[in-house]
């Protein structure tokens, strides 16, 4: 999610740069959208935890930007303590940003300093690192095996479930799925 500003509407080059960045991030396979102001972002964040990163445009024409940004970060961090946050700006604003905000921000993006594709790749890297650290070790390995196609880990019925039975946790997963399947819980959904 990108958090824009009403003040940005008076700056067509900055709007274009933000829209190009949004398109480049979408091209990397993410679902994105732009909200008009921080108060809109607060509403969106309160409704859902699905955001893996948030970019906030630092509007120097907004006298309350520091307070609004800190309030948003506080709300966002209560729901998600480690998701990447980045500041978007047209120039270097780090000398005008409070230390509390600087500590929370993972990346500073100057809209006119790099290409949208380069910046989208930086955002992708932040999100990828964040996602890699979310999963517990066993599930992370299971997910990687499934995505790599090394085993039929996604379906215990293939190969008789032998891959599951090679590890104690896998045995527990196998038994759980077998019990639910035998009870008929998965038949209608996956049959």
From TrEMBL:
What residue range is the signal peptide?
none
- Which Pfam families does the annotation name? OKR_DC_1, OKR_DC_1_N
Coiled-coil regions listed: none
- GO CC list: cytosol
Q: Which GO terms describe its biological process?
A: amino acid metabolic process
| Keywords linked to the UniProt accession | Lyase
Q: What is its EC number?
A: 4.1.1.19
Q: Which superkingdom, per the lineage?
A: Bacteria
Q: Name one GO molecular function term.
A: arginine decarboxylase activity
Q: Which residues form the Orn/Lys/Arg decarboxylase N-terminal domain?
A: 15-130
Keyword Transferase attached: no
InterPro entries associated with the record: OKR_de-COase_N, Orn/lys/arg_de-COase, Orn/Lys/Arg_deCO2ase_major_dom, PyrdxlP-dep_Trfase_major
> Which cofactor does this sequence's record say it needs?
pyridoxal 5'-phosphate
- Domain Orn/Lys/Arg decarboxylases family 1 pyridoxal-P attachment site: residue ranges: 136-175
Instruction: Please state what class of enzyme this protein is.
Output: lyase
The record's annotation in PANTHER family points to: BIODEGRADATIVE ARGININE DECARBOXYLASE, CONSTITUTIVE ORNITHINE DECARBOXYLASE
Protein name in the entry:
Biodegradative arginine decarboxylase
Species: Serratia fonticola
Which gene carries the instructions for this protein?
Answer: adiA_1
């Amino acid at each position: 999610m990108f958090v824009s500003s009403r003040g940005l509407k008076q700056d067509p080059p900055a709007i274009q740069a933000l829209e190009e960045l949004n398109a480049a991030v979408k091209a990397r396979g993410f679902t994105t959208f732009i909200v008009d102001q921080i108060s809109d972002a607060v509403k969106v964040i309160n409704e859902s935890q699905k955001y893996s990163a948030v970019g906030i445009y630092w509007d120097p024409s907004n006298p309350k930007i520091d307070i609004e940004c800190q309030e948003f970060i506080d709300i966002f961090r209560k729901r998600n303590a480690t998701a990447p946050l980045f500041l978007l700006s047209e120039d270097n604003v780090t000398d005008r940003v409070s230390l509390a905000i600087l500590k929370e921000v993972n990346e500073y993006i100057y809209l006119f300093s790099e290409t949208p594709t380069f910046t989208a790749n930086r955002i992708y890297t932040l999100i990828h690192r964040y996602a890699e650290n979310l999963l517990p070790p066993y599930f992370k390995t299971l997910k990687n095996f499934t995505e790599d196609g090394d085993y039929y880990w996604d379906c215990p019925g293939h190969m008789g479930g032998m891959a599951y039975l090679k590890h104690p946790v896998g045995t527990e997963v196998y038994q759980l799925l077998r019990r639910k399947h035998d009870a008929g819980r998965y038949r209608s959904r996956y049959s």
